[in-house]
Amino acid sequence: MVGELIRLKFAIQRHTLSWKRVLGLVLGVGGALATWAALLVAAPSARSDVLLFVLAAWLVGWLVGPILTSGAAVLRPEYFTLLPLSPRRLGFGLLASVFVGVGAVVTAAAVLALVGYAFVTAVPDVASVAAAVGTAVVGAALLLVFTVAVSRVAYALLGAAMRTRMGVEIAAIQYGLVLSSMFVGWLIVSPAITAVPEFLRDGFGASGVSGVLGLFPSSWPLLAVDAAAAGDYGSAAGLVGALALVTALVVLAAVALLTPYVGNRTVRRRTRPWGSRALTRGRLLPGTPLGAVIGKELRTWWRDPWRSLEIRSSIWFGIFVAIYGVIAGIPQLAGLAGIAVALMAGLSGANLFGQDGTALWLLVVGESPRAVRADIRGRQIGLVVALGLPAFGLSTLMMVLTGVFEFAVPIYAGILATLGVGSGVAAVMSVVGVTPGVEPHRRVNANDAGENGFAIQVALWAVLLLIAPTVAVAVPLAFAADPPPWLGVAALGVALGNAVVVAWAGGAVAARRLESHLPETFARLRYPGTTMAKGRGAGFLDYLSGHAESSALAAAAAAKGEKPPQRTKETVG
Questions:
Q1: Which partner from 195, 277, 476, 500 sits 20 to 30 angstroms from 544, CA to CA?
Q2: How many CB atoms lie within 10 A of CB 218?
Q3: What are phi and psi of 265, to 5 degrees?
């Protein structure tokens, strides 16, 4: 059975996008080479600290990487729900399949640096070299098994935790850190690179970091090698034995967790959510179709774990942007945290209909222009409220903490414009680039709601382009030595106009597009690949729709181990 699962995994990986395979291979090989290079270049007194840090980095990479890229879900336990396999046998098979791949191979090459460390540490004593190298080989093997198994445990636990607010928060922190690193991580690249020679020469010094890292299992093989090289074979055996015990426990946990989940999608609530009481008490929303959609959207943003993940990821994105600014010595950037949150309105909302699964059939069966317009406008308003409140609140908090208030007006203008423009772009892309994901009641992992890389890229650049009028006024205001009072009022006025115009125009375009393509849009969610939008029409929206559908179908085919469908010039369905 293990062999069948491994062959199935290879079949899936052969049909994944080639650039992903190449990128993963390049990064993995580069990481392994960097591990050995750090070992060889580091000063003898710092070699232990350097390897402690590098091994901990590999463990963190295995913990975070599969969660962010869904790389651990090549073979999902849900695929085997109906097969006559015992949970333990299925769990062992799925865990064994993880060890067959580029990730495990390059990790093995990296942890084998322990052998090189053992050799250079124990030389010239032959007996010490033999003991240290033997300890290193056993420790490296155990560390590899531990790292891969704990990665699968973390991935499975996060899937279970997505049914709780704590799990959503953990996933949001990880996504926020990655997003902030992509946008402003370059601010600390230069200081980090500058500190590398000093680290290779002095290690952690007297900071105590090495003592903290020594508590993690990733450091135990290294400490065991040091003990064996010093002739303390009892300590070496104890550390290896402790690692073996922890590895066995993690493997058993991974086997237990790698089973199909068939329970409730979320934890049952015992009390009525606060958001529901706030929306229904005193009838804050009008009793119209628009009011109904707004209420539904706000409740969804508040209750649904996958929508809530979008909001929390945006907030952590803004927080980490502020942290990067403080680390880089530019506290003024902390105020931009709210703009970072607002920017996510266009990205998080770029697939609103896809996030709801096939619920679009409600519009199909009750099709009317009024219902379509109310649905689009309600989604826009819900998106602005859901992300607007944390955007303004976070920027205000960061300005209070840093004491930088001179940029308040341009920052608020940027948030206002970005929210409005983002809602307009999100409305258009939610219709044009609608992408099916896992149905809401079947979602398990953090990235099951479906995403479209092409649509997100288009949304990002569209938002950055369409807020240009506000940027043209806000930037001179931010850097002017003594700006006149009317310039601040002008900036806010331009931002408001920019937001309203783009939001209204985007909603109008989205509503008109959905009215004329409602059956096709639903078919793209319910029956992916049957519409093949490219080739239908010659407009810009048709072009975007075709390429977004191509991207979605290619990603879905790769996940299933199939070849991407070939487009034809004819429209199917």
A1: 500
A2: 25
A3: -70, -35
How far apart, in whole angstroms, are the C-alpha atoms of residue 114 and residue 136? 5
Mean pLDDT across the stretch 231-239? 89
Q: At what angle do helices 337-348 and 408-432 cross, to 10 degrees?
A: 10
| C-beta neighbour count of 454 within 10 angstroms | 19
pLDDT tens for 98-120 read 777 778 889 899 999 988 888 88
| 230 contact partners, CB below 8 Å, separation of at least 6 | 128
Give the H or E element holding residue 189: helix 189-202
**Start-to-end Cα distance in the chain:** 40
Neighbours of 364 (CB within 10 A): 14
Q: Which residues contact 381 (CB under 8 A, 6 or more apart)?
A: 290, 294, 297, 423
Q: Hey, CA dihedral for 548, 549, 555, 558, is it positive or negative?
A: negative
d(CA 344, CA 390): 11
Q: What is the DSSP string of 66-109?
A: HHHH-GGGSS-GGGGTTSS--HHHHHHHHHHHHTSSHHHHHHHH
Cα separation, 569 vs 118, in Å, equals 62
CA distances from 446 to 135, 151, 437 (A): 39, 15, 12
Local structure of 354: helix, strand or coil: helix
